[in-house]
């Protein structure tokens, strides 16, 4: 008897614990099962009917929100997203208590998102509820309000909230991409040759809301985000040679931390944002990897050999740096401690490997550009297994991989559509998405 | 305009007369700055290779005021019809071959002749390298040429280098000829 009682007590505590962990939505304190599952072995099937415009002027925002939310949820491929056309066959309703659950069940939906939008002048209020179609219960209810200037941000926030609550997954819908582009078609001022300007741009992860963050009409290339996603480090030729600049994008300020008068390029922030690794040929050396503090102080040389050392990337803890070196004859990927010790070569089966990019945890891998035939493909080196897998397969030339902050996606540049464009793809090689379409676009960096 | 053209040829002649091997132009060298000026240099008839054109205008070199004329020209004008020829490189390489050494030698002769000139050697790569590695490879191309010029007696402080990677291609094409033309160390006069 005591035995049984003790068992029940333990079981009860376990249930309580689950409740505490999963009941992140305070609106639903009594729900025990907040996670909507699909049929056994299948991902849950989500429907996003068009959001209800509670006021007539909200119609545009309502339409945008439901479309962007569908795309955002589809991006992580955690859910099967019921196509919009199919979902549109279910009659639209004005309020949540009218949701036709049998009709959704008939379409095979496990989850349906009901949203409504109110707009008063420039202010928007969005209400979102996530329903379990089987139980007809609301498992998540959120209200967002603010400016109507960028309605997509509400959808991105909803998507991240849903991924967090339903899959304990950090979504990337609110992240941004930085890249270099010639899209404004300007030419370098002065000089005798007709030379093309490249400026640094940022955009939402899906390519929307493009903003130019440099305006010096010179070459500006190889952007890299600070971990707080407020600063972009990049290489600029505004002084006539490559040098490192920092764009504080929300303050409109440019800083120049490196010693002037010498070539410095390819900056990358350490994971804690306090240091920058970069390439320099200072002191008459050939290209070597250096690390400096963010303000340019405490410059330390990491590599020291008569060969090219270029394209540094930090390990997630900041303890190591991977980079490209031709010290063995061809460009290959190496890893070295951030103190310059414990060098080891990583790639061996490649004829040419460059642009290593270390994944964030929990993955432990390094993506890189590998020469395959005439062009390049994105490959990934799994550090635990010591094995390489390929992510792109010869469609155009594919270069400059950059990991999403959750490690599940890679942005890269590709010539597969003709010009050089930024694409994203899952780390498994699935879910290819084109991000840019205007001009040529290079060297993406993905923000936190 | 006509005068500018003549001066351009004159400068080419200076190159030709100061380098015994100037006529052995590597194929891509038919593309001096800017790309538009490659049209006249490209042989319109098979019987007229670029080197032949240089000889055609030899008499111009006899004009006495040549150096004064050069001295009075702006840097942009000088660079537009640059007396310097680019040094070209093999794929993935920053090594000077024989042709490259000859061009570098000719360029060093010009620097000796115009002792006040300061040049920037721009290192460039072709799109067959990666964007990032090309920055370092093109830097090493520029450094290689600078080192060679210094070994020929040019003061190092007269030569700056800048690496452009695969930016600013001579030829925007996507073929062997374009790539060969883009793998180069290009001279720019920055002070005189």
List the SSEs and their pairings.
The complex is a heterodimer of chains A (448) and B (192).
Chain A: H1 2-22, E1 45-47, E2 52-53, H2 59-75, E3 80-81, H3 84-87, H4 101-106, E4 111-120, E5 123-132, E6 137-147, H5 152-167, E7 176-181, E8 199-204, E9 211-212, E10 220-225, E11 231-236, E12 243-248, E13 253-255, E14 264-269, E15 275-280, E16 288-293, E17 300-301, E18 309-314, E19 320-325, E20 332-337, E21 344-345, E22 353-358, E23 365-372, E24 375-382, E25 387-390, E26 398-403, E27 409-417, E28 419-426, E29 433-434, E30 441-446
Parallel strand pairs in A: 1-3, 1-4, 2-4
Antiparallel strand pairs in A: 4-5, 5-6, 7-8, 7-30, 8-9, 10-11, 11-12, 12-13, 14-15, 15-16, 16-17, 18-19, 19-20, 20-21, 22-23, 23-24, 24-25, 26-27, 27-28, 28-29
Helix pairs in contact in A: 2-5
Chain B: H1 2-18, H2 38-41, H3 50-56, H4 66-72, H5 75-80, E1 87-88, H6 98-113, E2 118-123, H7 131-151, E3 159-163, H8 176-182, E4 184-191
Parallel strand pairs in B: 2-3
Antiparallel strand pairs in B: 1-4, 2-4
Give short descriptive properties of this protein.
heterodimer, A: 448 residues, mainly beta, Rossmann fold, Neuraminidase, 6-stranded mixed beta sheet, 4-stranded antiparallel beta sheet, 30 strands, B: 192 residues, alpha+beta, 60s Ribosomal Protein L30, Chain: A, 4-stranded mixed beta sheet, 4 strands, globular, disordered N terminus
Précis, in short:
By secondary structure, chain A is mostly beta strands.
**Largest pleated sheet of chain A:** 6 strands, mixed
* DSSP helix fraction of chain B: 40-55%
CATH-derived topology of the largest domain in chain A? Neuraminidase
Low-confidence stretches of chain B: 1-65
Give the integer mean of the pLDDT values of chain B: 75
Determine the N-to-C terminus distance of chain B. 22 Å
Question: Helix content range of the residues of chain A, please?
Answer: 10-25%
* CATH fold field value of the domain at 67-191 in chain B: 60s Ribosomal Protein L30, Chain: A
- Strand elements of chain A, count: 30
CATH superfamily of the domain at 67-191 in chain B: OmpA-like domain
| Total E-strand runs of chain B | 4
Query: What CATH architecture label of the largest domain in chain A applies?
Result: 6 Propeller
Tell me the radius of gyration of chain A. Answer: 25 Å
Instruction: Give the structural class of chain A.
Output: mainly beta
Distance between the termini of chain A: 54 Å
Gyration radius from CA atoms of chain B, angstroms: 16 Å
Order of helices and strands of chain B: HHHHHEHEHEHE
